[in-house]
Amino acid sequence: MIPKEWLKKIRHIEMRTVRLVEDLMAGQYHSVFKGRGMDFDEVRLYQPGDEVRRIDWNVTARTGETHIKKYVEEREMTVLLLVDASASGGTGSVSQSKRELAAELAAVLAFSAIHNNDRVGLLLFTEKTEKYVRPSKGRQHVLRIISDILTHEPKHRGTNLTAALNHISHALSRRAVIFVISDFMDKEFARALKVVGRKHDLIAVPVVDASERELPDVGWIAFEDSETGEVLELNTADPEARKLFAAGAQSRLTGLRRLFTKAGLDTIEVQTDQPYLKALTKFFETRYHRLHP
Length: 293
Known about the structure:
By secondary structure, the protein is of the alpha/beta class. It contains 8 helices and 11 strands.
């Protein structure tokens, strides 16, 4: 049984994201994600301006009139949400945690997918594969995905992106669109990104909390790494300590950006203390202009 507070949050996410998809995202989603190709529809009489290479010579010979093959775009795709469920996802310094933001982003992408008649699935991972929801369609299916992201209780604390990417790459036999929603608190996953990115349309969605970018001036505090349990004490009143922390955070983010670029991936950078619509819009606009120069 899902607790009432989670049901309320799921309903709130649905209301926000469905409106956003209907008003803004559906058309943009359709324009930047292409189906698997073209499906044969029917033959019809040749008309001036038609492409000669589409002439159906068998029908033409049989009827004595020139016919061409007509195709329609095969729209249906599989969209997979690869969501980090490790302990660091509970971090949140403002109105929402990284996991809650991941759930809302997943909702926008999932509702956009089913609005375009695509199937959407979910893989929750930590250092192990925690849960796999097979791709399907429909509002209830999307609500289940949102609920799973918010309420799943992980069996492990750490992160293993390589294992998750390898798992989903083998699970999906045909090319799919894969969104990796994570804080990417892991190491040595660059090769897995490249390998999976060659087979599938892979998009990285790094989620960052404000507390991971800079420290407030509140004196001595103890940090516990949510994934390893390691404890570190730090004097936040020391300007130099705050400066070093911010520099380290920026260096990590710069390194991630470089890694994604090298792997040839598109990205959607989001932060828990900032509206995500701007990041989504930038992603769709950049991708659209690249596909339609």
